[in-house]
Design a protein that fits this description.
By secondary structure, this protein is an alpha/beta fold. Helix content is 27%, strand content 29%.
Length: 488
């Protein structure tokens, strides 16, 4: 089964698929370009199927027609898509290549790779896509850490790393069958269809598979908006007659604070995901646009299992009730299921669960607890079955939907010769949800380095959103009896 075939089996080829500025593509035009792009990829000889090895293919491309076109082309050719976010540093790129064993990469024109390619080929599809297919290798090539034959047998469609590729990011594997089951379940209450015009503002490298694929599969139009200025976003929704906005709390905060904003008659639902929704943002948005924000819980391993479509106006901070086929339970530390109102860890099970973790290699059944996925989120259920979250069990920091692992930032900080120890925590932020902040113990307490030097050191090694917003020097960090650093 190939998810791309399902997209074009029943679509209206005269209907609009994509809009980006003044450019448009109907479903028929998209399919024609897709055939051209897939033929160009196959013509390189780099997409010959192998029974014991998946055709992992990286894609480094900004939002736009080319990203959609070549993502679909890779899938149609039997490749497994590995998105490479543009914000990754050279070190993070190397880690991605090393952990996946990636040996082929598509890059947009003008986006140079930091290492010389073994071989490269120009790939063209109409006037909308001009990419370079290049052979890549890890800085220090090593055998794959995963079961290559088992991965190939899954018919993988996507491998996405939740944040960079170091720290605790494992690489989440989704097969074609899983992806189809997921986008079908996700749409059970979103109800996106041919009449919808979805305003797209999130980075495709992080959100393509479950979102763009869902819109295409259900015949909707995706309107790509590049600007993150409130006036441009508002104008795009108004002028394009957007019916669905799918963004983060950051984007909703921009619109809520836009003084010229007025109710948008065509907009039927505004979904907020990727980070917790602040109460002030929810209230200000609803007051300005006379439309509540519908919060959802998105998890790369699970999909969009919860959606607050019923209580959005009365209690916008809920992440909602389970979508079709999903079940929810809240458990305490002993594994006991808790009654409504009691706080514990949120567990989920349902259709479209991930197939495996890539590195270290673990199949789904080895990770799930009798079919249940431990989210690591703390929360409680209401009597109607909907859920409100209250925090995280672990130390993941959520910056505008981007996951930051505290351990990764701490490790980087401790590579500086003047830093003896580091603790990184989340600080609430009114626009992006959370930002990382760091407490440091100096190697020489009498002569700690200047804070700008530490921040510059981090910026050279970490994506911008992982760099601590604030640094403070402390005499010592709190620790457990076993010597581990206590989390705030």
């Amino acid at each position: 089964m190939n998810i791309v075939d399902h997209i074009f089996q029943s679509c209206d080829r005269e209907a609009m698929a994509l809009v980006h500025g003044e450019e448009t593509l109907t479903y028929g035009e998209l399919e024609s370009l897709l055939d051209e792009a897939a033929a160009a990829l196959r013509g390189t000889g780099w997409f010959e199927p192998e029974e014991s090895r998946a055709l992992l293919t990286g894609l480094s491309c900004p939002n736009g027609f080319a990203h959609v076109l070549f993502s679909l082309a890779v899938l149609r050719c039997g490749g497994c898509l590995v998105p490479v976010p543009s914000e990754l540093t050279h070190r993070e790129r190397d880690a991605l290549v090393e952990s996946t064993g990636l040996d082929r990469l598509l890059t947009a024109e003008g986006q140079d790779w930091h290492r010389e390619a073994k071989e490269s080929r120009a790939i063209q599809a109409g006037t909308h896509g001009a990419l370079v297919l290049r052979g890549v290798t890890a800085a220090e090539p090593a055998p794959p850490t995963y079961d290559e034959a088992a991965l190939a047998a899954m018919n993988p469609a996507l491998i996405r790393f939740s944040s960079g590729t170091t720290g605790q990011s494992k690489g989440v594997v989704l097969s074609h069958d899983t992806l189809l089951a997921r986008v079908t379940a996700c749409n059970s209450r979103l109800k996106i269809g041919p009449g919808d015009r979805v305003i797209w503002i999130l980075p495709m490298a992080h959100h393509f598979a479950v979102s763009i694929v869902l819109y295409l599969l259900h015949g909707a139009t995706t309107v790509i908006v590049d600007s993150h200025l409130a006036e441009d976003l508002y104008a795009a929704i108004r002028d394009q007659k957007g019916t669905v906005l799918y963004g983060s709390p950051f984007h909703h905060a921009l619109l809520a604070d836009y003084p010229e904003g007025r109710p948008l008659p065509a907009l039927r639902v505004s979904v907020s995901t990727a980070a917790p929704l602040p109460k002030a943002t929810a209230e200000a948005f609803q007051e300005r646009y006379d439309l509540p924000i519908t919060q959802g819980l998105g998890i790369i391993e699970v999909g969009l299992p919860l959606l607050n479509d019923e209580a959005a106006a009365s209690d916008p901070l809920r992440v909602g009730r389970p979508q079709q086929g999903f079940e929810v339970t809240i458990r305490d530390e002993s594994g006991t299921n808790l009654e409504a109102g009691k706080t514990g860890e949120l567990l989920l099970r349902g259709p479209g669960m991930f197939d495996a973790y890539l590195s270290p290699w673990r199949k789904r059944d080895e990770v799930l607890d009798a079919g249940w996925f431990h989210t690591g989120d703390l929360g409680h259920q209401h009597e109607d079955g909907s859920v409100t979250l209250s925090g995280r069990l672990k130390s993941v920091i959520n910056v505008a939907g981007m996951k930051v692992f505290a351990e990764e930032v701490e490790q980087t900080l401790c590579e500086h010769p003047a830093v003896k120890e580091a603790r990184v925590c989340a600080l609430p932020h009114p626009q992006v949800g959370q930002v990382p902040v760091a407490e440091l113990v100096a190697a020489d307490p009498e002569n700690p380095p200047k804070k700008p030097a530490i921040l510059s050191f981090c910026r050279e090694r970490l994506s911008h959103y992982k760099v601590p917003m604030k640094i403070s020097w402390v005499d010592a960090l709190p620790k457990t009896a076993s010597g581990k650093i206590k989390r705030a």
